[in-house]
Structures are given as structure tokens and as C-alpha cells.
């Protein structure tokens, strides 16, 4: 009986002792020190407002094109006997260079016949003068004049059998081959002039208001070629007095002199290249340039006042890439918050990063 009671009481006693030990340990634990440290404030970047003239750069993109594009046609009929080694798409040719030759035999014969006709006309005039026949003299003079014109025409046609480039050019398309028979008026090649290149830049109506007609017109063109960003100088050729009906932009045409001259440019400017243009515009007075991260969706910014946020409505005069130009709503010395936080509201406490 005693053993049975002992078996029942022993577990209870063990549990009771464990509870007492645990209570003693809890009571002996040192009290935790309470901290009065407040949660850290969000850190923000600020920018001091300094009002003044802000230069405007209009950024536009376009393709490099030739000043002149020409479909070169044959002015004679015949078989192509020879073409120049440079008569290939993409090759450069000089003004006056012979690109291909048409069989000249028929035209040499025509020239010889015209010269023989002139000789006969001169003989006929001499005979008329000798016999003093006035009507025959007048007719002889007309025959001589006509014969000389035929010689001029025959010589011109013979010269046309050598088809030449009318200007320094890049061959865009080759349209005939050696041995091919061609007719008068048939296109033999398409040429792109290489002395001057042009770029038509689409500028929005809003940006066009900042174009400065009185400026020097210096424009910088940029393109990524390999690992380098290359720059070429250009000048404004014309600002078209119209808005494109399809795209609703104002075309601004700039030109680059000697695009293929390596003595003028560090890198030649090939026709067809897509470039980015930086066009100088009219400066905006009494304004400040800010990163676009400072602008809220309702055209307002936050200004730092006594380490708190204060919302200001602003007037945005110009937008370009990651920057905006503000010319209203801010005062000299204002500290604009340029860091975009997930939550921002009036009176919110923040800490400037330069504090």
C-alpha cells in the first residue's frame, strides 16, 4: 500500500520541485533596461534653390541623309562594255569619275557622218559663191549651220557613252551589269552626295517654342559606335515653317560638312546612321533645374522646413529626360527634397542626408 502511494506522489513531487526552481530562476533574472531611443527618421537628399537663367537643350533623334539623292540615267542607247571597280553599292566615287561605258561605235560613226556633211555643205557654199547664186549661198550657209549643230549633238552623244558621277557621292544602288543593253532614260545607279550630310530632327510643338533663331545654330550630334560615344559638330540649316500633319512635329534640319573627311572629323559620319542631337535653346529666366524625382504627380514638390515636409505647387516650364525646369512656386534658398519616399505627406518629419 505504501509503495503504491509513493509511486503516485513521486511524480507530483518532481513536478512541484521543478516549478519552484523555475520560479526562483525567474525572480533572480535582472530587470530589462527600458530604452527611450525613438525610431530613426527617414533620410532624404535636399537641393538648395538658386534661381537664375537655366539653359535649355532640346534633344531630338534622326537619320543621317545625303543633301542630294539622284537616280543616274543613261542618255544613250547601247550595250554596257565596262564598269568601274568602284561601281558597287556603298563605294565612294568622285565628281566626274566614269562609272560605266556604253558601246561608242554607233556614236563615233554618227560624229564622222556629221563632219562629212559639214564638209559637203562647205563645198556647196563655195560653189554657190563662185557662181554668184544668192539663193544657193543662203542655203549653203544654213546647211553649214545645221551640219555644225549635228556635229555638236553627235559629239555630245559620244561623250554620254561615258556615264559619269555628277558629284562626289556614295553609290546607294547599282542597277546595271556589264554586257547589259540599256536604253535612253534607263536608271543605271542611285547616288547619294557625300560632300554634305543632313539630319531632319523632329521637335515637338512645345519644344519648338524654345528654339532660338538668333543663336549661332551650333548643334552636337552623338552616336554609339562600338564602345565609344562619338560626337560630330553640325549647324542648323533651316527650321521649317510648318507642322508635320502626320507626326505633329516641327522639322529642324541640320547639316554636317564633309562627313567622310577624316581630317575634319575624328570619326567619319556614314549616311543612314541614327543619331541623337543636342540643340541649344532659349534660356529660361528666374528658374531652377531639378531632378524629376522631386516632382509629385500633382505638379508639386516637397520643401524641407524645420525638418518637416511642406508641399509646394510649382510651374514646370520644361522637361528633358531625368530633369525638369521650374520657373514658378519656389523661392531663393528653398530646400527641395529630391528623394522619392514610398510615403510622403505634409508635416512628415525627415532628416536631411547632409545633417
Describe this structure in words.
The protein is α+β, with helices and mostly antiparallel strands. The chain has helices at residues 2-28, 105-131, 134-160, 205-208; strands at 43-44, 46-48, 52-66, 69-73, 78-83, 92-93, 98-102, 162-164, 169-174, 181-182, 187-193, 196-204, 218-225, 228-239, 249-257, 274-291, 300-305, 308-313, 315-320, 323-328, 335-337, 351-352. Strands 3-12-15-14-13-16 form a 6-stranded antiparallel β-barrel. Strand 19 and strand 20 form a beta hairpin. Helix 2 (105-131) packs antiparallel against helix 3. The model has no long low-confidence stretch (mean pLDDT 88).
List the main descriptive attributes of the protein structure presented here.
355 residues, alpha+beta, 4 helices, 24% helix
Task: Give me the secondary-structure topology.
Blueprint: H1 2-28, E1 43-44, E2 46-48, E3 52-66, E4 69-73, E5 78-83, E6 92-93, E7 98-102, H2 105-131, H3 134-160, E8 162-164, E9 169-174, E10 181-182, E11 187-193, E12 196-204, H4 205-208, E13 218-225, E14 228-239, E15 249-257, E16 274-291, E17 300-305, E18 308-313, E19 315-320, E20 323-328, E21 335-337, E22 351-352
Parallel strand pairs: 1-22
Antiparallel strand pairs: 2-21, 3-12, 3-16, 4-11, 5-7, 5-10, 6-9, 7-8, 9-11, 12-15, 13-14, 13-16, 14-15, 16-20, 17-18, 19-20
Helix pairs in contact: 2-3
Amino acid at each position: 500500500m505504501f509503495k503504491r502511494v509513493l509511486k503516485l506522489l513521486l511524480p507530483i513531487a518532481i513536478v512541484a520541485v521543478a516549478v519552484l526552481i523555475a520560479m526562483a530562476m525567474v525572480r533572480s533574472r535582472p530587470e530589462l533596461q527600458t530604452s527611450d531611443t525613438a525610431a530613426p527618421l527617414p533620410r532624404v537628399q535636399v537641393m538648395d534653390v538658386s534661381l537664375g537663367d537655366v539653359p535649355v537643350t532640346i534633344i531630338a533623334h534622326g537619320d543621317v541623309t545625303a543633301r542630294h539623292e539622284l537616280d543616274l540615267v543613261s542618255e544613250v542607247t547601247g550595250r554596257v562594255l565596262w564598269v568601274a571597280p568602284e561601281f558597287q553599292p556603298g563605294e565612294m566615287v568622285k565628281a566626274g569619275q566614269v562609272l560605266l561605258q556604253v558601246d561608242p561605235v554607233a556614236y563615233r560613226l554618227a560624229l564622222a557622218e556629221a563632219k562629212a556633211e559639214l564638209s559637203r555643205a562647205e563645198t556647196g557654199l563655195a560653189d554657190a559663191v563662185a557662181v554668184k547664186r544668192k539663193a544657193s549661198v543662203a542655203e549653203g550657209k544654213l546647211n553649214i549651220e545645221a551640219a555644225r549643230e549635228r556635229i555638236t549633238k553627235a559629239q555630245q552623244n559620244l561623250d554620254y557613252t561615258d556615264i559619269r558621277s555628277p558629284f562626289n557621292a556614295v553609290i546607294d544602288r547599282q542597277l546595271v551589269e556589264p554586257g547589259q543593253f540599256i536604253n535612253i532614260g534607263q536608271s543605271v545607279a542611285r547616288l547619294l552626295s557625300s560632300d554634305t550630310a543632313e539630319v531632319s530632327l523632329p521637335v515637338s510643338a512645345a519644344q519648338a517654342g524654345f528654339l532660338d533663331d538668333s543663336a549661332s545654330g551650333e548643334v552636337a550630334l552623338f552616336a554609339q559606335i562600338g564602345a565609344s560615344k562619338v560626337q560630330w559638330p553640325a549647324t542648323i540649316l533651316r527650321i521649317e515653317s510648318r507642322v508635320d500633319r502626320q507626326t505633329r512635329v516641327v522639322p529642324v534640319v541640320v547639316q554636317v560638312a564633309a562627313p567622310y573627311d577624316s581630317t575634319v572629323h575624328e570619326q567619319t559620319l556614314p549616311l543612314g546612321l541614327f543619331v541623337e542631337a543636342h540643340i541649344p535653346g532659349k534660356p529660361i529666366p528666374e528658374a531652377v533645374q531639378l531632378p524629376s524625382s522631386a516632382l509629385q504627380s500633382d505638379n508639386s514638390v516637397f520643401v524641407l522646413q524645420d525638418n518637416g515636409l511642406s508641399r509646394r505647387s510649382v510651374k514646370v516650364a520644361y522637361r528633358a529626360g531625368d530633369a525638369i525646369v521650374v520657373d514658378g512656386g519656389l523661392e531663393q534658398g528653398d530646400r527641395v527634397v529630391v528623394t522619392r519616399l514610398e510615403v510622403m505627406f505634409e508635416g512628415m518629419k525627415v532628416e536631411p542626408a547632409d545633417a
